[in-house]
Design goal:
- The protein has 8 helices and no strands.
- By secondary structure, the chain is an all-alpha fold.
- Among the domains are: 90 residues; 57 residues.
- Helix 3 runs antiparallel to helix 4.
Length: 212
């Protein structure tokens, strides 16, 4: 056995240790392949694509479409009720007109007419309100405030901020809210007013810098 080991070339000896030497090289690609999904997941988590316009909160458009659908349903209900009453007033083929006396309840008829009129008025008001808000591009109370200030105030008054009369009126509203609803609510209104004035000043200063 010693002579055989002596005559065996040395190149064949590492054949038994080759699996152990190959294992680190085999393990390294697996580590790299396992690390790549984590990096891709982090990239996908950090990147958030913007929502499409259909998912954004557009109150004016929703109010307009909802009012239109509501008005269509109310008109369909009114038409069916009128058609049903007209058919009830027609006598059958075996009865003459003078002897045809359908049972009518005045209270029920008046209540149904009042309900139908209320539905039609509410649906039309909802649709018209949504149309006006959509035409003015108003989606919230803040948008309404900006629109009113833009229409009522001039450029100089917008640059200065609120008019003295508006400031006095807001102070009176704050005092009334603090008296009726509590000091906490009054402080919140005061903080909101100060924040709005600071935002208006910042916008004016930014426009002035752009003009320069």
């Amino acid at each position: 056995m010693g002579l055989l080991r002596y005559f065996i070339p040395e190149q064949q000896k590492p054949s038994t240790a080759s699996p152990s030497s190959d294992t680190p090289s085999d393990q390294t690609p697996t580590n790299t392949t396992l690390s790549t999904p984590s990096s891709s997941r982090l990239d996908t988590d950090e990147f958030e694509p913007p929502l499409p316009k259909l998912w954004t909160p557009q109150t004016n458009l929703k109010l307009l479409l909802g009012g239109t659908a509501f008005l269509a349903l109310s008109l369909l209900t009114t038409r069916r009720a009128i058609h049903r009453r007209r058919l009830a007033a027609i006598p059958p083929f075996y009865t003459s007109a003078p002897y045809h006396k359908p049972t009518v309840s005045g209270g029920v008829e008046a209540f149904e007419a009042l309900n139908l009129a209320t539905l039609n008025v509410l649906a039309f008001a909802m649709m018209s309100t949504g149309g006006v808000l959509y035409a003015m591009d108003i989606n919230s109370v803040d948008d309404m405030r900006r629109y009113v200030r833009r229409v009522s105030l001039s450029e100089e008054e917008m640059a200065k901020g609120l008019v003295e009369g508006d400031q006095e009126m807001e102070k009176e509203v704050e005092a009334w809210a603090a008296k009726v609803l509590g000091e906490k609510f009054g402080r919140e209104l005061r903080a909101q007013r100060e924040k709005e004035s600071e935002d208006a000043r910042g916008l004016v200063e930014g426009e002035g810098k752009k003009g320069e």
